[in-house]
# Entry
Amino acid sequence: METWDLEGKSIAYTMDIHYEQINLEIAIGALAFSDKEHVVLCPAKDHHSLGIDINPDPPLSERQHASPITWQALTNSDLQAFYQIFTQGPDACITTTLENITALDPYFR
# Structure
């Protein structure tokens, strides 16, 4: 995650979903909305770009990801909750706080 504008109203984020068994990565890059306290991420309806990487090199099983912000840490839930939220339809969103983001990633600005 990174701030997108000088007022801090928009926050760019990337959501990577890895399917290691078939060596496939799906990435959604989008802009979340922030009111300086809460951050709302709606991957299905935020303006976004979508990327699919089939058989990435190096393979997903060999990559180490540096992002300290994971779905589980950001939402304090598990991947089953992720599935439940995002199969509800296009209006599925999560809300977090800037405080939570900076606690997970002290370099976020």
User: Anything to note?
Assistant: The chain is about 20% helix and 35% strand. The longest strand covers residues 24-34. The CA atoms of residues 44 and 80 lie 18 Å apart.
